[in-house]
Amino acid sequence: MPEPKLSEAAAQLIELRGLGPLAEKMGIELLELSAERAVATMPVEGNTQPLGVLHGGAHVVLGESLGSFAANVWAHPEKVAVGIEVNATHSRPVSTGVVTAVCTAISLGKTLATHEIVVSDEQGRRLSTVRITNFLKEKN
Fold first, then answer.
1. Residue 104 is part of a domain; what is its CATH number?
2. What is the total count of domains within the chain?
3. Nearest to 67 by CA among 133, 138, 11, 139
4. What is the pTM (predicted TM-score) of this model?
5. Cβ–Cβ < 8 Å for 55, 81
């Protein structure tokens, strides 16, 4: 796996915090991270529901993780981002391979950051769309 493409703030945060235990448990691999755009992959295997397809909650974990990482890059170093709203629309199932999530900033403000994350299969077909809004709060 090549080294991820990280903005300076992203590199500082990854060094400081890492991706977190849940992202690691899900097999999320970061490819790119900045406040404006982030990309990550996740294996389907090990993240399925009883019918054998990628669990809807796994889509949300991937999307929320990526959107929160990007929002925290935006907030760094004075603030931290905390999620206040997340939603997902699942468009099609996937049962094998690796999914890719591409996170794009919708709005980067002083107190809120909103990102849209599109999760696709290996053929580039949209599987789900996740949207997250983070509150940017002062560090305690």
1. 3.10.129.10
2. 1
3. 133
4. 0.95
5. no
Catalytic residues: 64
Please tell me the distance from the alpha carbon of residue 115 to that of residue 66, in angstroms, as a whole number.
Answer: 9
Domain range for 127? 5-138
Assess whether the previous peptide bond of 77 is cis (omega < 30° from 0): yes
Q: List, run by run, the mean pLDDT of 10-residue segments along the chain (140 residues).
A: 86 90 96 97 98 98 97 96 98 98 98 98 98 95
DSSP code of residue 46: T
CB–CB of 28/99 below 8 Å? no
Q: Are strands 98-108 and 37-43 parallel, antiparallel or unpaired?
A: antiparallel
Strand, coil or helix: what is 25?
Answer: helix
